[in-house]
Amino acid sequence: MKNDSKLSTTSSTNKSFDSNPISNIELFKKVYHWIGGGIRCLFFDKTVEYKGERRKQHFIQTAEEFANICLHFNGKERFWVSINPLKDTSKRKKSNVKTLMNVVIDIDTVGGVTKETEEVTNKVLNYIKEQTKLTVAIPVIFSGYKGCHIWLQLEPIDLSENWRKYDNLLRQFIDDLARRFNKKSTTVDKQVKGIQCVIGIPYTIHTKTGKQIKPVDEKLFNEGRHAFTKFNDLLLTTGSPRIKTRDYGYLSPRIFLTLLIILMYF
Q: I need a labelling partner for 252 at 20 to 30 A (CA). Which of 16, 43, 122, 217 fits?
């Protein structure tokens, strides 16, 4: 498949972002399966009531639940979805992430989408494609506000062990992209880089602008989910060490330095 998912600020897709809330329940079920399904957290910017419960975080486990809550709050409240599935419905925290299957690169421009947004987004797309030898298109979602989300759909990785290692490597990957491609007004958002982070939901309305969060190339969305690359392939873009099939544990730099200082006194 040709990688034709480039962002264009002059494309007909970008000119036709619909601000009317979509009421098609089947579409949101499709979104749920497209992001990989499983237990997800829908995170709101304030406490909201749903089915008798008042909270900022509502957990869903099925496509039906996901679609219903999206329809209920779409265009009324601002909310996001966890990019990776969780082990249970207790908390949205790193240690509760079950599987790493999505990496989202959030590109923002001060004041909204411009030619600079297009330039940075396409440079990031081309760089990832060249470094990982990808032959498939990479989905790009208009964020509804200041930029876009590049969705990298991975072959699923079980995070029952060593979630810290994967989270750390993912953060290195995003930081490296920021160092390479950030410009004066357009940046890779370094706040959206953890395995537990949340992101805007395709086809919901961004309540600050009234614009729809929408795929730039809807053909890629309609074709369904493509687990097109391994996490190890992404690490090659940063020069980070590849993860071995068998892992003997993880020692963070902070703990390592602490132990080194202690040993110096003995």
A: 43
* Count of beta carbons in the 10 Å neighbourhood of residue 108: 21
Question: Pairing mode, if any, of strands 198-200 and 79-82?
Answer: antiparallel
**Separation CA 187–CA 192 (nearest Å):** 12
Q: Is residue 3 part of a domain?
A: no
Nearest to 132 by CA among 25, 220, 236, 17: 236
Residue 103 one-letter amino acid = V
Domain containing 99 equals 12-264
Q: Is the separation of the CB atoms in 105 and 234 below 8 Å?
A: no
CATH number at 85 reads 3.90.920
Query: How is residue 74 annotated by DSSP?
Result: T
Torsion of CA 45, 50, 54, 60, to 10 degrees: -70
> pLDDT per residue over 145-178, tens digit each?
999 999 999 989 999 888 999 999 999 999 999 9
